[in-house]
Automatic annotation (TrEMBL):
This is AMP-binding enzyme C-terminal domain-containing protein. Belongs to the ATP-dependent AMP-binding enzyme family. SUPFAM superfamilies: Acetyl-CoA synthetase-like. GO terms for molecular function: ligase activity. It holds the Pfam family AMP-binding_C. InterPro entries: AMP-bd_C, AMP-bd_C_sf. It comes from Streptomyces melanosporofaciens. GO terms for biological process: fatty acid metabolic process. Keywords: Fatty acid metabolism, Ligase, Lipid metabolism. Residues 13-86 form the AMP-binding enzyme C-terminal domain.
Amino acid sequence: MYLSGGSNIDPREVEEKLVTHPKVQAAGVVGAPDPDWGEVGYAVAVVDDRLTAEDLLGWCRENMARHKAPKRIHLGDQLPTTAYGKVTTPVLRQLLQDAGIWPKGGSR
């Protein structure tokens, strides 16, 4: 759970919505520090060819409540998961940091 602009956001709910897109195979979402909103969603998505992060962000804005749509999306080859298939949040954050997408100064 992360707090964005006074609303509690369940990352799982956002992940479940992302995978309803026909070209998204899997998705993981984490709350990232934001100076204006407290936290915002950052997502990693595994997608079929020819779907860009910008196109997926546009789809999110059209199909999700604005405060639930991820602010940033990184397209990856796979998600870090446990043996039970649950997304490993600290590893997901590290993946976003390594990709240069995590907000500057956001250590969470």
